[in-house]
Each structure stands twice: as structure tokens, then as C-alpha cells.
Design goal:
Layout (H helix, E strand, L loop, with lengths): L2 H7 L11 H13 L4 H17 L6 H25 L1
Helix pairs in contact: 2-3, 2-4
């Protein structure tokens, strides 16, 4: 699935523009702001930070794109999970 296809199902507009790790980081933090409750937001902000620390040494372009794709898919799942609870 291409990143353009992900844009159609992404949690926030702009997912199709995410091409670099820093863009992904900012995008995921914006997604966190849309979640209900400060404790839930802080939980996912912490998870985003930890994930970036774990993958900081990745340098393969294909691997980086795989990580970006998976992170956007995961963000979509989380956003849908909390949207259904409202």
C-alpha cells in the first residue's frame, strides 16, 4: 500500500506528505492531541518518543519507509479505537 493510499484512511490529513522521520514524529504528536483525555494523550506521546528512540539508528531508506507506513497504520488504528468509544 502506498503512502498516498494511506492518506485516504489516515487519522489526520497530511499522512500522504509524511516522507521523513521528523515529519512522522510531528504528525504522530498532532494525532495525540486529538485523543480524549490528558492521560491517554500522554501515554501515546510517551509511546511515540520511545519508538523514535528505539529506531534512531535505522538508516536504510526502505526500512525507514516501512516504519513510517506501519506507524501511520498504527495511528489510524488508535484513532479509530478512541473514535468508537465516544
Amino acid at each position: 500500500m502506498s503512502l498516498q493510499a494511506l492518506g485516504a484512511m489516515a487519522p489526520l490529513p497530511g499522512a500522504e506528505l509524511v516522507k521523513r522521520p521528523l515529519q512522522l514524529y510531528r504528525y504522530l504528536l498532532r494525532c495525540c492531541k486529538e485523543l480524549p483525555g490528558e492521560s491517554v494523550q500522554e501515554h501515546y506521546r510517551h509511546a511515540v518518543r520511545q519508538s523514535f528512540k528505539v529506531h534512531a539508528d535505522e538508516d536504510g531508506p526502505e526500512r525507514i519507509q516501512q516504519i513510517i507506513k506501519r506507524a501511520i497504520e498504527d495511528a489510524d488504528w488508535v484513532m479509530e479505537k478512541y473514535k468508537k468509544q465516544k
